[in-house]
Design brief:
6-stranded mixed β-barrel, homodimer, globular, alpha+beta, Glycosyltransferase
Chain lengths: 689, 689
């Protein structure tokens, strides 16, 4: 069943982990203790083969991944302060995560656990994937704690974790929806297809791992290991075991990250088996398309079906590639990436244009008003590109990651941190009655997903490679880490990014060292000026990492200057929804119009961007303290004077081309819908000269 | 429960039907005979109060409807020959209806009936509304037979009808899905909500009535009466009877047309009760929106939810208004009509833009590639406007009816009559893999719906009024009927409509008579020249009926000349999907581009219509014998030379405005997708001068 995904022994011999070390954990004794109500002390390291130690692992631990070019740094290694992301992260920690804790409680997510041990009388509540809400929130807390202790959050999470593990059955199973009277449905093919059992487990593993990496506390991790090793591995897999289908991909990522901790090769093999699907579970084609699973991942040729499922499957497959180097996976991953970026991604980095099935549309099907662009899908897009970047060091992946992060993801959480978008449309009309930002959704996947993403953000700033360090993202920050050879390294960034393009980077190795500092030059800049200690370096190209190879001493200063100016962007003409329209981008930020910022009575459907001025005079910038502080763009556009057409269809008379000048004000897309309900538009008509 | 829909006695006193005549039929004896396996002879007229007699009834029998301004003519009164619709109707009778008979058989639709009486071993097949497929096909045959006998079709239908009525239970119930082992589910609120029980009955009544009006054969009609009078009326309705919800409106139309035959006021009252909904069946709001039923029709303020449901509900509500004159209904109907025509209707007359829920979208949400535009919804739109026209004599309703008929409906059946569209998009890309025309759908509502519509078409050509006759549609045809005062009247039309706008109408009353001939002047023409016996008459206005009041003698000739020229149409700027784009209309026909008709290698996304020429020189017409014979339009448009942009997003550089001239060929929209798979587009970019 897993011919294409077969793990070659060679791969492992070349890796740092010895095959002999790949033994499973002695977990049965632990189970017995938990079953008896005792709480075993966390045993950091015991039975685990992970290196570096838990404190030094990043978002992913690629230390031993033979086909990763880059290695994550720990989240705690970077401190972001005083600027764009610091503000978002502060709100995330102080408002979003605590309020989500209360909402999870208020909506019965934890009572689902308590009722199974007689501590709650409440009925099961929420959809089949409700446990994952708790795990994603736990992961968010885990990432926050990796950046430094927050006792109140830690206490909340510990209470949750205690209540979760109390529910685990002696056989390792743990899922509040399929314990109790739904037990007979457990792991039935139909349940696997629609019941999110393994999806919940995947999030449990990710939450457990983030918490372990923050605290060394193995309680939830050990529960996850028991679920995998005691329940799943002995009973499910290739024949003669019972078959698995990943109804909503997520378990693949979870299993492989677990393997990176335990060294237990069976976990990696199981992920590969799941990625390939099992023919014994027969499913209609439209179901395997929707699920982006159940058929061999390596047979896929395009992105389709449920966008979050597809993105998570691609994440898992990239992880699998980084461990195995399977060329069929690499080929498929690149085919899918090309398909997405050339035909199916919004300019905001959002993906999944169709609300019907929360799915990828056809090529170039990118409606604006009806854009689905689920927050989770944009996050999945970022997570996938992070993995592709780790595999290659190619800046094209960082460009997509940054596009999604600053726009389609950042839009997903209100500026006050307590309201969330499920959909992230690129045009909006409040008269439809849609309420776009809400504190809670019964399907509440997006809010804690946003929280874990912002919690983990420092971990995305840098990677190390065998020959140096890569700088991916820019914001006021300080790195305190080391090169792969162990040499201590501090890097500080001083910048007002994304509002302007000047970044001063001070590089301070603990001792004078030869290494390469890979400076990301974003694809959106026209020019990039780089100097080190005021000496200009030539050769930096947009859309590439610029390697600065030299002997570095403490206090060396890189000056990077990117051209952060408003740009007029057009879509491929095959995007019917954007034809005749343009978007405005400045640096990594996509801008939009909200009707309340424009002159009274002006409808966004009647305005046009005027490209006819000299570049540089088209837009004036102004920093405003509103909406968390942002740079707005002023532009003298055109207003079509055609208010007269009330009918739906009319003879074209030419009069619709009459325009007059009108002052327009653009705000960053991420800040939309943070005031009163008003129309919004990213793609605006282009005034044809 | 039916406060707003209460039928005022006054209404009926003013109507032509006396209240005393509204007695129910003595049907129990008939039931007993059928139950015993005997087949009672049809008893035309017995127990019925309908007038005129069955032969002289139209699509609807409005002879006694107090609030109808116009009265239908019988289908048989008009013979269409030798031109546009004659060809479609010939194919409908000779190919579509016979092949659909075979497909209904092959797909088990009739075996569903046979299995209940032990004549088939097959399992139930098809969705819950499968019986309606048979009834709609029977209705199509009924309309065809109204135009003249077709023994082979009549034999097919009689066999079907015998097999249908054989299944009826002694209590009157008849529904193959809920007989046998699903009997306990029958008429449960959940079943009514999703099980299409009353929808099937509505179609049974419509099929039975069309067949009765063709043949006088009451077999199926009596079965329908038994279902209504013996099963439904005694047991269901306002408390203390059991409640009803119309899960898919259709029964309302059926009941009211039945009332027009039986005179049984309880049937009308039941329709009113159903239109108002019954609070005892509690449903989530999104369900009542989707169903367009379950809440008071008169509380609705916009079109939303499932488009076919909404259209059929509006049909039933208009029928109810024509019988009762309830002003709340009239207000709501006009509000909904304004909402549809000002914000939610495609230029093809198609409605229901969203595939998700087969639903109306928000105002101005009219995507082209993703247009749903179900054939049934366009038919429902035509049926509704036919009723609104009957209530008012207002030509604005005829304009919508004609738009839907020539475009969004006519596109639904292939030119060879054996393939059908379910969706009718306004742009198409075959690389998506969609197959747009198919011989059969498991949900096969559209094919027989198209067949019944084309079968009934002659009945839509004229109506009578108290003061004369209305001409609605133009095609080579002959009317042989009479005025409402009984004076015989023949009217012949000689025309090449829709290819040109000259119509010669010969009016021949049986005796010299004073009456008004209401000549429809379509809304799409800029001018209309009218003469009678070569004497020019002034005052004809587009979008109105032009009443020619005079003393008519046999052989009087009306010459009507409409301006049938290509027009460039633009949509309201709030339709984002059409902004910067135009459609081409000529007479009642919307035109489109198919890629195979354009120069090699040209993508439809790169072409633009050039409005910059003098009107009249923009397009050249050519009649081609292809595709059933059609007038194509040649136009020198513009090709954007921007093939270079392969990426999804790029900096706007101005170079995308470079164009060169290119010859384009438009075909009528209804003829699209009748050759090889190719791209299609209705709304094309407009070249901005």
């Amino acid at each position: 069943m897993i011919s294409k995904g077969k793990i070659s022994r060679r791969t492992f011999v070349t890796s740092a982990v010895s095959v002999a070390a790949l033994s499973s954990l002695p977990t049965r004794r632990v189970v017995a203790e938990v079953a008896a109500g005792q709480k075993p002390m966390p045993q950091p390291g015991a039975g685990l083969t992970d290196a570096p130690g838990w404190k030094d692992q990043g978002i992913e631990n690629l230390a031993k991944s033979p086909h990763a070019k880059l290695r994550d740094i720990p989240v705690r290694a970077v401190t972001i302060s005083g600027n764009f992301w610091a503000q978002r992260r502060e709100i995330n920690v102080n408002r979003s995560i605590p309020s989500m804790h209360d909402l999870l409680e208020a909506n019965g997510r934890m009572n689902n656990f308590r009722r199974l041990v007689g501590k709650s009388e409440a009925a099961q509540s929420g959809p089949v994937f409700s446990d994952s809400d708790v795990y994603k929130w736990t992961e968010a807390v885990g990432f926050v704690l990796q950046s430094g202790d927050r006792p109140e959050l830690r206490a909340m999470a510990e209470k949750f974790i205690d209540e979760v593990v109390a529910v685990q059955e002696p056989n390792g199973y743990l899922n509040t929806y399929y314990q109790d009277d739904r037990k007979p449905l457990r792991m039935q093919p139909q349940t696997q297809t629609t019941g999110h059992e393994l999806y919940n487990l995947g999030h449990m593993l990710q939450g457990a791992i983030a918490y372990y990496r923050a605290t060394g506390d193995r309680k939830l991790l050990d529960a996850g290991i028991r679920f995998v090793n005691d329940f799943l591995l002995p009973n499910y897999g290739p024949a003669p075991k019972q078959p698995i289908v990943s109804g909503h991909p997520e378990i693949e990522m979870g299993l492989i990250e677990l393997y990176r901790i335990t060294g237990d090769q069976r976990q990696l093999e199981l992920a590969g088996y799941i990625l390939q699907g099992d023919k014994r579970i027969e499913l209609p084609e439209r179901r395997t398309i929707y699920m982006f699973s159940g058929t061999p991942f390596t047979a896929r040729t395009k992105l389709e079906g449920h966008a979050v499922r597809a993105m998570y499957a691609c994440c898992g497959a990239t992880d699998y590639y980084m461990e195995t180097g399977d060329p069929a996976y690499w080929k498929t991953l690149n085919t899918l990436w090309d398909d997405m970026t050339a035909t199916k991604m919004y300019v905001t980095g959002g993906v999944g244009s169709r609300s019907d099935g929360e799915a990828f549309g056809d090529a170039y099907e990118l409606p604006n008003f009806r854009a689905y662009g689920e927050s989770c899908a944009a996050i999945g897009n970022m997570m996938w590109n992070w993995r592709m970047l780790a595999a290659t060091g190619d800046a094209k992946f960082t460009d997509v990651m940054e596009r999604a992060l600053y726009n389609g993801i950042n839009s997903g959480m209100s500026l006050d941190g307590v309201l969330y978008c499920y959909r992230n449309p690129l045009a909006f009309d409040p008269s439809t009655g849609d309420k776009i930002r809400n504190p809670w959704y019964d399907v509440t996947c997006c809010p804690p997903n946003l929280e874990r993403t912002f919690g983990s953000l420092p971990g995305y700033f840098y990677s190390t490679s065998g020959d140096g360090i890569y700088a991916h993202l820019y914001d006021n920050s300080e790195l305190n880490w080391h090169l792969e050879d162990g040499t201590g390294l501090k890097v500080t960034q001083k910048t007002n990014y994304p509002w302007d393009g000047a970044v001063e980077i001070t590089v301070s190795p603990a001792k004078v060292s030869d290494f390469a500092f890979y400076l990301r030059i974003p694809g959106w800049t026209d020019t990039a000026h780089v100097s080190v200690n005021k000496k200009v370096l030539a050769g930096a190209k947009p859309g590439e990492y610029f390697p600065i190879r030299r002997r570095w001493s403490a206090g060396d200063v890189i000056q990077l200057s990117l051209e952060v100016v408003p740009q007029i962007i057009e879509a491929n003409p095959r995007v019917a929804d954007d034809s005749g329209r343009v978007a405005i981008q400045r640096g990594p930020l996509i801008y939009c119009l909200e009707e309340i910022d424009q002159p009274n009575g002006v409808s966004l459907s009647d305005i046009a961007v005027d490209p006819g001025r000299r570049p540089g005079e088209q837009f004036q910038t102004e920093f405003k303290n509103e909406l968390g502080g942002m740079l707005v763009l002023h532009h003298t556009g055109a207003l079509y004077e055609r208010g007269a057409q009330k009918s739906l269809y009319a003879r074209f008379g030419g009069e619709s081309l009459k325009t007059r000048k009108i002052p327009l004000t653009f705000i960053p897309y991420y800040a939309w819908a943070n005031r009163q309900a008003t129309s919004m538009q990213v793609w605006n008509l282009l005034l044809q000269a």
